[in-house]
Amino acid sequence: MPDPIRLIAGLGNPGPDYERTRHNAGFWLLDQIADDLRVSFANEKQFFGHVAKARVAGEIVLLVKPMTYMNRSGQSVGALARFYKLAPEQILVAHDELDLLPGQAKLKQGGSHAGHNGLKDIQAALGSPAFWRLRLGIGHPRSLGLAQQVVDFVLHPPRKEEQARIDETIDRARAIVPAVLDGEFEQAMQQLHSGNA
């Protein structure tokens, strides 16, 4: 039986300038999960982020939004993993994904960081790629028919119709949280991926 998830990290960039940008899809999801678990975030300097602690079936579950900017996300995730003695397999990282269209999401364990700076830094901090990833589709400027550079695209808010699809994805991702906290990854994947029309 795989280890249940004990830490969920949502990736984004801190501050009001970035709040509604595509790169912050991980933050958006974490806010919803915190609501579902009836917990709120507090700024925890020693963990370089906003941290919420929930109890689920008697176990502590941590939520974190790193406040280090995307490319230093590992500082926060690594500090929490060391303090709470968590294995990479007990960590789920929710992040924006260029290779999936808005409305699509994928759950997987391990693999490459595919150039995502947040994942790259977390992999370096944990010394392993074996953590779980919840990939929230934001589309790629080319797949959406835009001429923007990728770096510019991720730091802009989605267009209205894309935002609606991303919001649907976040609702589907929220719905699988109980399963991943139980270690029921097959069930979580089937439930999440069945909506990737």
From TrEMBL:
One of its GO terms (molecular function) is peptidyl-tRNA hydrolase activity. PROSITE patterns: PEPT_TRNA_HYDROL_1, PEPT_TRNA_HYDROL_2. This is Peptidyl-tRNA hydrolase. The keyword Hydrolase applies. InterPro entries: Pept_tRNA_hydro, Pept_tRNA_hydro_CS, Pept_tRNA_hydro_sf. CDD domains: PTH. The keyword Cytoplasm applies. The active site is at residue 23. The lineage of its organism: Bacteria, Pseudomonadati, Pseudomonadota, Betaproteobacteria, Burkholderiales.
